[in-house]
Design brief:
By secondary structure, the chain is of the alpha/beta class. The protein has helices at 37-40, 49-61, 72-83, 96-113, 134-140, 143-146, 164-170, 194-207, 277-290, 295-316, 340-349, 372-393, and strands spanning 16-20, 23-26, 31-34, 89-93, 121-125, 156-159, 175-180, 183-184, 190-191, 210-214, 238-241, 252-256, 323-327, 330-334, 352-353, 355-357, 361-364. Helix 2 runs antiparallel to helix 9 and helix 3 (72-83) runs parallel beside helix 9 (277-290).
């Protein structure tokens, strides 16, 4: 018999009652160090006073109006995002999936309005994750996402990860753009090297294509810059954003240059809830913290420390940890000899919350407010877990 909540998740047997800063507390009062952040969402940790106050104050005044009226909070948030990025304009959504869906539409509309309606195809990388819409799973092309949902929307050419020759070979008369994650999340915490990002930008420029960066998981300060593609020195034409932008409140956005957004005129796209006053109040509160002097620098510093501590852990457990991956506070360890879910379950039992990622990777996405004490605590738990698994294997 099916459960009242549709059984689409393999849920861990733990339920949380409250959160504070870097920690979650379950219904029995047990404390957990959160290195998952609700899939990279809780960039400021749990119950951050700035966000709580913004939500409470706006909630007393106005939650929602239609987007047929002006929303001053949205205009302010859009301007701040434009000022802090390479974009000229912003559309607000409710989720990452909606953001990537709009990115796909924008590429098609751009070429249509330029007189090239046939240029509708996007080149994407294998093992990507671009949301759970039909277009999103078609763009990723992974069987575990697409099986049973055929026929899929046409328009996507999936090539091997970072294979520039394959990218060039895939370009045809119907190609409209390239869409990638600067750091793959679900695919196994795999950063795209700066030189590959630069070459992708050049390929787009040489062929009249739009360069789309899906920054839903790797953006909003997670790598030490507001957006991960900035590390390579390139500029994106369109940026998909979500997760950290709302600090736990459902919020997403698509940022674009004026040229890339030239086809987005009145009636070309819409949303009921996206950009409403409540969401905009929280989004502005997130930026109040994230754009403070030193915030992104702290994220980078702690990310460097996390990567270094994981590398040291690899030296201690070389037979278990095959590789340390990631960028900043988006990190992973590849442990091919042990089922990833077994490691994650063991760590949860010890009071540390990581996550599973593809390619046998244990994924870590701690809140950006992490400090040295939290790092010490996490590494100690990881070390104990791996030591026990090593002893069992002997």
């Amino acid at each position: 018999m099916i459960t009242p909540v549709m059984p689409t998740y393999a849920r861990q047997p733990v339920a949380f009652e409250r959160g504070e800063g870097m920690y979650l507390y379950d219904t029995d009062g047990k404390k957990y160090l959160d290195f998952y952040s609700g899939i990279g969402v809780m960039c400021l940790g749990h119950s951050h006073p700035t966000l709580v106050n913004a939500l409470a104050e706006q909630g007393k005044k106005l939650w929602h109006t239609a987007n047929t009226y002006q929303i001053p909070g949205g205009e302010r948030l859009a301007q701040r995002l434009v000022d802090a990025s390479c974009a000229d304009t912003v559309f607000f959504t409710n989720s990452g999936a909606e953001s990537t869906e709009l990115c796909i539409k924008m590429v098609r509309k751009y070429h249509h309005d330029k007189g090239n309606a046939g240029k509708y195809r996007l080149i994407t990388f294998a093992s990507a994750f671009h949301g759970r819409t039909l277009a999103g799973i078609a763009a990723a092309g992974q069987e575990k996402l697409t099986k049973g949902f055929e026929p899929l929307p046409d328009g996507f050419d999936v090539v091997p990860f970072c294979d520039l020759d394959a990218v060039k070979a895939a370009i045809g008369p119907n190609t409209g753009g390239i869409m990638i994650e600067p750091v793959q999340g679900e695919g196994g915490i795999r950063p795209i090297p700066a030189e590959v990002m630069q070459e992708l930008r050049k390929i787009c420029d040489d062929n009249g294509l739009l360069f789309v960066c899906d920054e839903i998981q790797c953006g909003m300060g997670r790598t030490g810059k507001l957006f991960a593609h900035e590390w390579s020195g390139v500029k994106a034409d369109i940026i998909a954003c979500a997760k950290g932008i709302g600090g736990g409140f459902p919020l997403g956005a698509v940022l674009a240059t004026e040229d890339a957004a030239s086809g987005m005129v009145v009636g070309s796209h819409g949303t009921t809830y996206g950009g409403n006053p409540l969401a905009m109040a929280v989004g502005n509160a997130v930026l109040d913290e994230m754009l403070k002097p030193g915030f992104l620098e702290h994220s980078k510093e702690m990310g460097d420390k996390l990567q270094g501590r994981l590398a040291a852990l690899q030296q201690k457990h070389p037979t278990l940890i095959e590789e340390v991956r990631g960028s900043g506070l988006m990190a992973g360890i590849r442990v091919p000899s042990i089922p990833t879910r077994d490691i994650v379950t063991d760590l949860i039992g010890r009071g540390l919350l990581p996550a599973v990622a593809g390619d046998m990777v244990v994924r870590m996405l701690p809140p950006l407010i992490i400090d040295d004490s939290h790092l010490d605590e996490a590494i100690e738990i990881l070390d104990a877990c791996l030591t026990d698994f090593a002893s069992k294997a002997e």
